[in-house]
Amino acid sequence: MMQPEQIQNIIAAGLSCEHLQVVGDGHHFEALIVSAEFVGRNRVQRQQRVNEVLRGHFDSGELHALSMKTQTPEEWSAARG
């Protein structure tokens, strides 16, 4: 069973993030991922990029469910006011 910190570390190692937060109960996780790599990409492309980083953990069954909110630094800044 994975912990939120493990998922956060894996994402951070594979994707340059300005902000990253992962919470969850060991089975279902939610992530807020802010990355300049998302600029010019739609929502599906952004999620595909994150899934690419986590693919091995999904394929092995170690990670089951991750809902994610992906934003560019500009979007994140605007959302925070």
From TrEMBL:
<protein>
    <submittedName>
        <fullName>BolA/IbaG family iron-sulfur metabolism protein</fullName>
    </submittedName>
</protein>
<dbReference type="InterPro" id="IPR050961">
    <property type="entry name" value="BolA/IbaG_stress_morph_reg"/>
</dbReference>
<comment type="similarity">
    <text>Belongs to the BolA/IbaG family.</text>
</comment>
<dbReference type="InterPro" id="IPR002634">
    <property type="entry name" value="BolA"/>
</dbReference>
<dbReference type="InterPro" id="IPR036065">
    <property type="entry name" value="BolA-like_sf"/>
</dbReference>
<dbReference type="Pfam" id="PF01722">
    <property type="entry name" value="BolA"/>
</dbReference>
